[in-house]
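cron nightly-structures :: item 1 of 1
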Amino acid sequence: MSGLRSRARGQAVQALYQWQLTAQPPHDIGRLFLRDPEDGPAIDEAYFAELISEVPRHVAELDALLAPHLDRPLTEVDPVERAILRIGVYELRYRLELGPRIVLNEAVELAKRYGGEAGHKFVNAVLDRTAKAVRADMARS
């Protein structure tokens, strides 16, 4: 992963993981991940802020979009992989300028870095099916 936006996604995975486990307000958690402005930007802070505020805000919708493509209830998915899936489906639904391949590639890289041993395969399969359904629905609208 390289680039400010990719690193923002990585930080967002960690922040959303913490949110899922603690139910702390995302804004409070987000402050823990931002650097001192004098150090220069290490991430795309605006994108990070968007992800950690909008994913929780839309979590019920995002989970509903993922559910048909899972082999188990979302609550049984590893919390790191759950955070990655939620970011991925958020980008598929709300960041239409990002092609599905970009979203999937970023999610797979996050899963390789932060997820379980075979988590990247699971994330790829779920988001691939979800991407086809979400983008097809949006094309019909």
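cron nightly-structures :: done
Residues 119-140 form the longest helix (22 residues).
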